[in-house]
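User: Can you fold this complex?
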Amino acid sequence: MFDRYHKFLLLPFVLLAVALCHTAPLSAQSRLDSLQQVEQIVVTGRVVQREVIPVQELSGEELQRLGSHNVADALRYFSGVQIKDYGGVGGLKTVNIRSMGTNHVGVFYDGIELGNAQNGTVDLGRFSLDNMEAVTLYNGQKSAVFQPAKDFGSSGSIYLRTRTPHFDEGERHHVRATFKTGSFGLANPALLWEHRLSEEVSSSLSAEYLYSSGKYKFTYRMQEGYDTTAVRRNGDVQALRVEGGLYGRVDRGYWRAKVYAYHSERGYPGAVVRNKFSHEDRQWDTNLFAQGSFRKDFRPWYSLLVNAKYAYDYLHYLADPNKDESMMYTDNHYYQHELYLSAAQRFTPFPWWELNLSVDYQLNVLDANLRDFVYPRRQTLLAAAATALRFKRFDLQASLLQTFVHDRTRGDRMADKQKLTPAVIASWRPIEGSGLNLRAFYKRIFRMPTLNDLYYTFVGNVNLDPEFTTQYNLGATYTWEFRRTWLRTLEVQADVYYNEVENKIVATPTSNFFRWTMVNLGRVEIRGVDAAVQTGWSLGRDFTLVGRVNYTYQRAQDFTDPTSEFYGGQIPYIPWHSGSAVVNATWRSWELNYSFIYTGERYSSQANIPYNYQQPWYTSDLSLSKSWHLRPGDLKATLEVNNLLNQQYEVVACYPMPGTNFKLIVQYSF
Amino acid sequence: MMRLSILKPNAPAAAWWRPHGALRRLLALLMLATVAAGCRHELPMIRSEIDYVTMPTSPAEIEGFFLVNEGNMGSNKCTIDHFDARTGGYWRNIYPERNPDVVKELGDVGNDIAIHDRRLYVVVNCSNLVEVMDVYTAEHIGSVTIPNCRYIVFEGDKAYVSSYAGPVQIDPEARPGKVVEIDTHSLTITREVVVGYQPEEMVISGGRLYVANSGGYRFPNYDRTVSVVDLESFEVVNTIDVAINLHRMELDRYGRLYVSSRGDYYGTGSDIYVIDLATETVVGSLGLAASEMCLDGDRLYTISTEWSYTEGRNEISYAVYDTAEQRIVSRNFITDGTDEQIVLPYGLAVNPETKEIYVCDATNYVTPGYLYCFTPEGELKWRVRTGDIPAHIAFSTEPFY
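Assistant: Here's the predicted assembly.
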């Protein structure tokens, strides 16, 4: 299996990489400029930062320590985030920031958004942490004004930053080989090869194969009743990812190019219901993209950032009644193409005043073998104007985003949409020299109806309006640093917020069960608190300890229908309380990591009645690692035990999660 | 910060099923030593709830009824409620506590309910089974696995269940359905017969079974036939061409069979067709759209729900057709304006003794629905909350304990 994928995917990649190598400019500049450093910050995982916007980041070693399979697992450690996890290595995992809905989350891969015009959500379970350098979550938008227009366009954003080659004097190669194995029949080899082509240009090649049988035992134990244990089936996944990049420096600037290829086959484990514990439907995905960025400070007062991307996504879904006779035969193919171009310009008239103008263009094409399909093509034009003012104790940022959307179809189409949306961000340090920082932001933004919302045969409704969110946030951060005490750092971050979701796009039934349609019906109000505390301890020379606690309180109420008995009910699957705690201890070449995740009681429906009650769940994960110097490099072995207490739980009703599971990771790098 | 009292804004009055207090949970969260934090409980037993909705009565025949709530697909939320006419009590979700050993309760998506020979039958579509219970206690007797089962009818000691899952053929898109015969004593399948595409409701008359074929999986090539099965030979002996997307069936006392066609939701609307059983030919249509229908004596009650994209909402009508006079006698059997409150009528039944009319409201499908009880004159008598997507009702002549 491996060989077939390997041949198929690697060849075009190699060709493209070679082509890019030859066109790489070779100018001479040996020193890292400040700009490059900004791009390559090696932060060792700080949740609490003196940022103008609430931001949480996991990076470097800390990201690797958490024993996560993928990006979605890592995001569980952030506050204000709910992950919907359908279980297993291959199961769908989506992210919801501050209860505004998965469609409002922008996911950026090395600075360029990962799109899915079809259904508007990105399965973060597919993104491996193997070559990931940082995962960063911003509420509102990234607190930089010099960025593409798209970066202003989501209610919350997740930035995935892959490893950028970084060579010390005299180094020409970096190689890292990793093998992970453990429960669920996991086999996960990965290889990373970084090469310095010249002083200014380096390349990176990363490849990873993943197989998991997806099988695990689960138990349902009813009070005074049944007690049944079964094995989760059809949760198998196999995936191959190959990724290559070229990174170059120019005078006061840089460029980079990247090719990404992913292919997977997986089963749909499906809902566990009476008399039907397993399913037979399957899905194949192919995702390819090529993207490039160029940035240069042409004048001290003028900078340019250009981004371009082409993406192709293919999805094949098959439900075959030969395998499960209760199924309706479905054999659907979906093809998506996306073209994205962006130019951002920064003007800095004074060191304290920055202006940004950016324009993005995007084309989305969706084809499918559905009956009566209208083959939509969507063109989006985004223009953003932003400004930042920096004073000694006060920062202010403001942005305006103009969005224009034009759809073309072979049938009815959505009327053209044109929207202007603002954001204002302020930050204040009331006492000079102290670690206290106050911040506030307001943002109004929307998400367009997805192509499925509008054009899916039967269900779609071309009369939909965009779904709007309005966010108000007030927060504070405090940082203490100590010398000569065991406690070295203490950082506290807390934000309170109020969000509104209007014109929420929901599915509503029509004349019968087979016939639903999408309407702008819902309204949700969210009131919440996110808090985080991080401490760093140092005992003697060899022992360091980092401890972190995150807590989230959310009241997310459905205010759709005032005549409903359930008006004001907490929306499905949003817990009132959730949080996480992580302790990491390092002693010489040993590392011990303990993490705890808690999700409080929730309801599976806005009808908050006992029948829809979902119990709290909490898991403890433990990992131990040791490294050895083994010339010419380092060998590291890690043993993880996840869900230590073997808790039987569900994140989504009828989708049981795995109990205690193990993972062994061996990594050699030089 | 926040006060602890606002931590649980929607706390219902009864808190007995909550495992922790808010404070304890907060502390538990902050405690890193989770080993000591106590364990997640077993799944809480779902208890039935009672609402007394009306005054007690002394019925001569109909002691009450069972109502099946379909529940959304993949949620395993099919439930049954029971109304007891002697006490006026409406019990919600009676199955789990009476059958604690049945794994995953009643199942996923109920589609039909019937009573036969002191047993209660529920067809659970996505759990691929027919659940058989004691009509006096709703205690599990047995179940019969039938993939994608839809509706049930009885004749003597046999039950007949329609199923979408006929034999898989070379073209998987042209897969016919079947009707399965069950022996009600042994609860085993005795015979099967292949009928049209995606068969729905059935009626039995004169030793023949009539089944409405929808072809719902084959849009836009809907089936348009009624298959006639001879119960002796268990073979299809006739196929009557009617109209597209057939669904429900009612048989009147004059030998006429009423079949509803759902239309195609685009150009072709819904209608009710009349088949003369003596000749097995279509003799006409009522010109009346119907998503649900129910015959009581000579009165054929219908509900039609049609989505209007211009209005952005469902347009609903409640009509009555008189099968003796052969004309529509009412365009709205709800006379007191209560129809304005009903969001999405999904089920319809008429009590054969009291002639009271029951209308199920599925509201938005994802929260509990409501059951409305109207007097024969069409005035609201009572209303009660049900489970998710209340849909099918079976009247019982037996007491329920």
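DSSP finds five helices and 35 strands in chain A. The radius of gyration of chain A is 25 Å.
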